């Protein structure tokens, strides 16, 4: 079972999300919080696999709570659940270490799949958020995009062919077991490759690596 902490200041929203996750048969909500400070405290107490956080909450907002959880409880993956998809929120959440960004308006399956993905060490972005990621979380001007693409190509040039292959699969949203199956490697080897890729790119997590992969043209489609 995937153990989840759910944080949202609206009890009705928490009830709905809890019901959706419970319907999957593979997820258990072990604690609920009504504000960001309580969320951090409950994560420290329960050590869930995933902390699912709303952005706008009293006492401590979800973005600040996410940063604190990533810093102090690294074994818990963080995903944001919100009605807000503005780029500033997306950029700060992913920059702060969140590996999932889900919209409350999304399909229930999207929520279940997102929690499953981040619990497994992969990244998951709602389709609307993924579009921002593909655009580099920056301006849409052609010159800016070309500059980011050139920088991304330079960054991946230091990777070995196998590391670039792994990076492309990380960018496609595959988990370590899925990458291992695709490349016919043992999972421990894949973990070592992913760790090396993150280190050589100078990024904090798989989502930031995925942005580089997209901009460098390593992700099909």
TrEMBL record:
- Give every HTH luxR-type domain span: 152-217
Keyword Ligase appears in the UniProt entry: no
Coiled-coil spans are: none
Sites bearing 4-aspartylphosphate, chain numbering: 54
Q: Which UniProt keywords apply?
A: DNA-binding, Phosphoprotein, Transcription, Transcription regulation
Q: Which organism is it from?
A: Streptomyces atrovirens
Q: Which residues cross the membrane?
A: none
Where's the Response regulatory domain? 3-119
Query: Which InterPro entries does the record associate with it?
Result: CheY-like_superfamily, NreC/VraR/RcsB-like_REC, Sig_transdc_resp-reg_C-effctor, Sig_transdc_resp-reg_receiver, Tscrpt_reg_LuxR_C, WalR-like
- PANTHER family per the UniProt record, alphabetical: TRANSCRIPTIONAL REGULATORY PROTEIN NARL-RELATED, TWO-COMPONENT RESPONSE REGULATOR
State a single Pfam family of this protein: GerE
- What name does UniProt use for this protein? Response regulator
């Amino acid at each position: 079972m995937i153990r989840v902490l759910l944080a949202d200041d609206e009890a009705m929203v928490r009830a709905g999300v809890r019901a959706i996750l419970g319907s999957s048969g593979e997820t258990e909500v072990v604690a609920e919080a009504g504000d960001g400070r309580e969320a951090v405290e409950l994560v420290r107490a329960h050590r869930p696999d995933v902390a699912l956080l709303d952005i706008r909450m009293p006492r401590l907002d979800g973005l600040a709570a996410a940063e604190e959880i990533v810093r102090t409880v690294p074994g818990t993956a963080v995903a944001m659940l919100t009605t807000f998809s503005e780029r500033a929120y997306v950029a700060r959440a992913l920059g702060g270490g969140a590996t999932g960004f889900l919209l409350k308006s999304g399909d229930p399956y999207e929520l279940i799949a997102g929690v499953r993905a981040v619990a497994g060490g992969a990244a998951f972005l709602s389709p609307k958020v993924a579009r921002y990621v593909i655009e580099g979380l920056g301006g849409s001007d052609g010159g800016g995009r070309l500059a980011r693409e050139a920088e991304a190509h330079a960054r991946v040039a230091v990777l070995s062919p196998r590391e670039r292959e792994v990076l492309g699969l990380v960018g496609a949203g595959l988990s370590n077991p899925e990458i291992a199956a695709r490349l016919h490697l043992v999972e421990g080897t894949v973990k070592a490759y992913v760790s090396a890729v993150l280190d050589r790119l100078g990024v904090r997590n798989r989502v930031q690596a995925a942005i580089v992969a997209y901009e460098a043209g390593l992700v099909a489609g």
